[in-house]
DNA sequence: GCATCCTAATACACACCTGTATCTGAATAC
DNA sequence: GTATTCAGATACAGGTGTGTATTAGGATGC
């Protein structure tokens, strides 16, 4: 019971975080359209007024949710991407990070929901673009770094490889969540391995002719 | 004006097809949740009564829409997959079919919407599974056929390769529609080529050691 | 040509959501 | 300790949706 007395600002931030947490879970579960402002507020332990007081509305809150998630991921990403570390260490940490990110189904569902929204709504697409652009840059940096370390000419620009990689991941994950009987976890791994191994094996073969 | 006088059954079928066509376009554009029964009926030139008279409701109509699309794709698929034709001919026709299917954005959006729904709703997932299962079988058959003709051991089961292939396609397409500035058409092609070429090139290399 | 049947239109009852406007009570300032 | 400020609750007005029950009118059968 040593709960610290919160200042106004801290309290407000706590409210925002709780609302975002509730929205994360609910939207992942029911979808953005099926989730009402009331649902979110209630799940967070507030009333609708709290949402309108803290965000412009449901759409605004959703963007904020994506932004927060993106920032968190960026922070974790940056922590791994440290030039001082040996390449093997970076690779291993990156693999762990990827596994943990990939396991987060709620976030995945929300990003996919966002993609659908972006495909349909030009306004949202513009806001979404800023986030995706950064994310692409990060992954492309990682891809370029590894091809450079390997001393192999990449089969396409790092940006293109990065986007292909992300697309493959997202496609496999959505397939798995929507058709779990067809695409079991082991199949997903195998499918990813086929594509990834082909690329890396080919790169390795070409690096030592 | 030689419009044939329709029998009741023909008339009813026409109504159903028009409703499905309208739903196809509207749901692709606005999403399932944001499309009301009234929207669909009105776009098709009917009133809501027509929908409830022909389908169980919006959800039922959506499943029917997917089923119809699946059947059409199956028919086109079967037409190409003819053992009597030389392999090169099949390959070329398959490529054309794939390009035309891939270009159909409205259908793609609806299938992706269906995937999201399936990921969230167990009941829908079961109905969806039947369609996806068949589709996977078709593509897997195609994959197996080609590896067999090539005389190369596939790097994974045809089913797994098929699902990986489908996931990649869908992932790239969704990326392109949601982030058109990042993933332009040429990038999408390049990204697909990287993965596909790696696999086929590797297979070819291994077939002639 | 009349009775029947069936498709689709219309009317109704109910539920839900949004956004704004107003209010309340607790935190801050002096 | 009183006044002020602000986060969040509550009330309200308006709009939209669903599914069912009823109705109208053209197609079918005899």
UniProtKB/TrEMBL annotation, chains A, B:
Domain of life: Bacteria
Short name of one Pfam family: TetR_N
Any one GO MF annotation of this record: DNA-binding transcription factor activity
Signal peptide per UniProt: none
DNA-binding region(s), residue ranges: 36-55
Keyword line: DNA-binding
Residue span, HTH tetR-type domain: 13-73
Protein name, as recorded: HTH-type transcriptional regulator AcrR
């Amino acid at each position: 019971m040593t709960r610290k007395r919160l200042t106004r600002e801290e309290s407000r931030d706590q409210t925002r975080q709780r609302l975002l947490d509730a929205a994360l879970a609910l939207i992942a579960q029911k979808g953005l359209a099926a989730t009402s402002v009331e649902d979110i507020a209630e799940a967070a332990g507030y009333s609708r007024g709290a949402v309108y007081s803290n965000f412009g509305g449901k759409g605004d809150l959703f963007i904020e949710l994506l932004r927060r998630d993106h920032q968190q991921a960026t922070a974790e990403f940056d922590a791994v991407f440290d030039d001082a570390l040996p390449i093997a260490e970076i690779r291993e940490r990156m693999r762990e990070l990827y596994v943990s990110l990939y396991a987060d189904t709620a976030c995945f569902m929300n990003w996919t929901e966002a993609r659908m929204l972006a495909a349909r709504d030009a306004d949202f697409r513009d806001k979404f673009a800023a986030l995706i652009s950064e994310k692409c840059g990060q992954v492309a940096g990682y891809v370029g770094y590894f091809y450079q370390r390997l001393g192999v000419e990449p089969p396409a620009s790092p940006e293109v490889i990065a986007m292909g990689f992300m697309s493959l991941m997202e496609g496999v994950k959505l397939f798995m969540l929507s058709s779990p009987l067809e695409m079991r976890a082991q199949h997903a791994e195998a499918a990813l391995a086929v594509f990834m191994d082909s690329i890396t094996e080919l790169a390795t073969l070409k690096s030592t002719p």
